[in-house]
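Section 5.1 Outputs to date
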Amino acid sequence: MELGEVVEDFLPSPEKLIPKNNKVTVTLELNEATIRFFKAEAKKKQISYQEMISILVDKYAQKR
């Protein structure tokens, strides 16, 4: 390779670096107190409360 030679971009796009989890969007009704709890806990962990609920449900399903 010579100095200043243009090299073809061979790296994947940033979107392809993020693993897909085959997630499905659902609608779920929860009590306000439950949502407040998850929002407060998620804020401490610096993640979204939706992600925290998703992790909880995933862990439950894996134990079944």
